[in-house]
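Design request, tokens follow.
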């Protein structure tokens, strides 16, 4: 079965969640993890290699806590 998948830009160099969503780039939704993290009252260490999405995830957390919703 062939399915049409609309092409979207890869978010190379985009570190802002709102910009990523408004420009309709590819984004793997991690909000289930954000929700789980906010329900636990302990610190998290986001240790990841360079250029591995730390800033984008921090931006996603900011949008989550500000109640922003994606446009796509």
């Amino acid at each position: 079965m062939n399915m049409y998948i609309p092409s979207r830009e890869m978010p190379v160099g985009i570190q802002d969640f709102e910009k990523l969503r408004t420009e309709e780039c590819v984004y793997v939704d991690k909000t289930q993890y954000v929700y789980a993290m906010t329900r636990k009252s302990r610190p998290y260490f986001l240790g990841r290699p360079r250029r591995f999405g730390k800033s984008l995830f921090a931006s996603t957390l900011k949008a989550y806590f500000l109640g922003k919703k994606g446009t796509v």
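Comment from the thread starter after seeing the answer: thanks! The chain has three helices and no strands.
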